[in-house]
Amino acid sequence: MGVMDASEQISGETEENAWKPVLAEIEDALVPAFIIEEHDDGRFTVFVPSIPTALAGAVYVLNRTRVHPIDVPFTQAVQSISRWGQDRRTSSRR
Questions:
Q1: pLDDT digit string (tens) for 4-23?
Q2: Is residue 93 one of the residues assigned to a domain?
Q3: pTM for the whole structure
């Protein structure tokens, strides 16, 4: 996936093919990530963005048991990452 593809994802231009937000098990932690490919053998390729820059990060191929889908729209997940994981709704209550 090229930079243009990633920027289209982040801008929401390709919603029907949007990366699916997940929590991925990396070492002893759950980290925000996105499914970018599902393999025939059931594994997933996931992109784990750097915080707060969602266009930079690492790619992992993980077993299905280590990838946990979350019910969050793609754009909301990216916005949370760009705010160091903080949700705008909870931060405004302080």
A1: 465 555 545 555 668 999 99
A2: no
A3: 0.73
